[in-house]
Amino acid sequence: MIRIGDEVAPALPDVVALETTLVAHGFPPGEGVEVGLESERQVRAAGGVPATIGVLDGEIVVGLTEDELQRFDAAARKVGPRDLAVAVAQRAVGATTVGGTLAVAKQVGIRWMATGGLGGVHRGFPDPPDVSADLSQLARTPALVVSSGVKSLLDVPATAELLESLGVPVLGYGVDTLPLFYAAAGGPPVSARVDGAREAAAVAQAHWELGGAGLLLGRPPDEPLDDVEPLIEQALRAAHDQRVHGQSVTPFVLSYLHRESGGRTQRANEDLIAQNARLAGEIAAIGSGG
Ligand code: PSU
Ligand code: MN
């Protein structure tokens, strides 16, 4: 049921898992694929081996080819941990979220992943009681996820609290607070700061030796946007007024922001995804004992 690419199988300790939801649903039509390919290039440049993961033709593919990746467009199903089996059985094109990708990584033994921003507790909890399955899957998967923290359209302090409850270390990459996706400053405190890829890899290895599972490493974007919050509030209001809910909220809000910011959030999002992929590649190369 799981097909592992030729390049991926022999290199598992160095492999960085990449997701397909951001390819299919995180950017305007046609643009997500380039973001995914750039992430792969960044992982390679840093000495790691990328494995972009998704569901295709009744199989879970670990290490999609470029041609295969082209099939992950807006028509793809968004696939979290609960949706993997159904997507396989129904032969859907399934774009895996962070949670969906981690569930696959767990099965095949991949220890590293990169994304833009982790999902979490949506603002307004418990009405609706919308909490991303990224969190529960991270809590049960021995892998380190590099991201620009938690997406700031969420309730980031509540998400940080829940990660503590779940026993997930929240590390800051050279910072003491969790990055806020587009913004670097103003987030809740991290559980520990690490300075450099080597220290991040050492903490992850120690956590796994102690029977721990997932870790989050928050890397602040190199060129943060600090003025997006009013637009986020506007986007969330629009989502509410248009009765957008469940899995559609995040893609709706991201595309609203990309459009209404004149492309600024889109460029920032592309850049931070590439930066996170590079760092994950660096950590994977070190973490495997290099
Ligand atoms: N990071 C981005 N863009 C995205 C995502 C992450 O820069 O679109 C995706 C990831 O796949 C993450 C998902 O798992 O958003 C969270 O969706 P939800 O809130 O519905 O769980
Ligand atoms: Mn949700």
Overall geometric form: globular
Give the biggest beta sheet: 11 strands, mixed
Low-confidence stretches: none
Bound molecules: pseudouridine-5'-monophosphate, manganese (II) ion
Estimate the mean pLDDT confidence. Answer: 97
Could you tell me the radius of gyration in angstroms?
A: 17 Å
**SSE order:** EEHHEEHEHEHEHEHEEHEHHH
Portion of residues in beta strands equals 5-15%
How many helices in DSSP terms?
Answer: 11
Report the strand count: 11
Percent helix among the residues?
Answer: 40-55%
Overall SS class: alpha/beta
How far the N terminus sits from the C terminus, by CA atoms, comes to: 32 Å
What does this 3D model show about the protein?
With 290 residues, the protein is of the alpha/beta class. Helices cover 41% and strands 15% of the residues. Strands 1, 2, 3, 4, 5, 6, 7, 8, 9, 10 and 11 form an 11-stranded mixed sheet that branches. The two termini are 32 Å apart. The model has no long low-confidence stretch (mean pLDDT 97). Pseudouridine-5'-monophosphate binds at residues 19, 21-22, 25-26, 97-99, 115-117, 119, 132, 134, 247, 250, 254, 269, 273.
